Amino acid sequence: MTSPASVLRDAFDRHTWATLLMLDYLATLDPTSYEAGIGGTYGPIPETLVHLVAADTRYLDRVEDPDPPRPADEPFDIGALRTQVQDNAARWADVLDRLEAGTLGARIGPRDDDPGYDPAETLLVLQALHHADDHRAQVCSTLGALGLEVPDLDVWSFWDDQRRSR
After folding, report:
1. Which top CATH class is 8-163?
2. Cα–Cα dist 46/54, whole Å
3. Exposed site from 18, 53, 64, 89, fewest CB < 10 Å?
4. What is the predicted pLDDT for the residue at 165?
5. Residue 162's pLDDT is what?
């Protein structure tokens, strides 16, 4: 039976699946074929994916600490990014366990002109999913503009690939 918790878990499973699929696809290409950026996106594909994964990690860090230190940007390394995405997936599973148990309490401390948010659980969960989809779409737009194949990251493909047999 479908429950609210299972819907949210599937959303995060798809979140992980889409980012890993993107990284696996890029690993098949010559890196020089996708280093350029296009207007209207975050930037070149390597920078965008480093940003996407680092931000996902920061959202998780904020679940535990309202004002975590901002980590240094890492270089673009597909293997290291894959590992971080998988580590984040395990952390999101723990967050969702705590949310379901009613023991998750997150807040975001004030910073600069931002007053902070308390509670922040919903904000962090929604932002993580939206932010990643936004940047994956930018990467796909860049790939298409560069004349490269665009991986199919949509929810239907995720469902057919990962969930249909459940």
Report:
1. mainly alpha
2. 12
3. 64
4. 64
5. 87
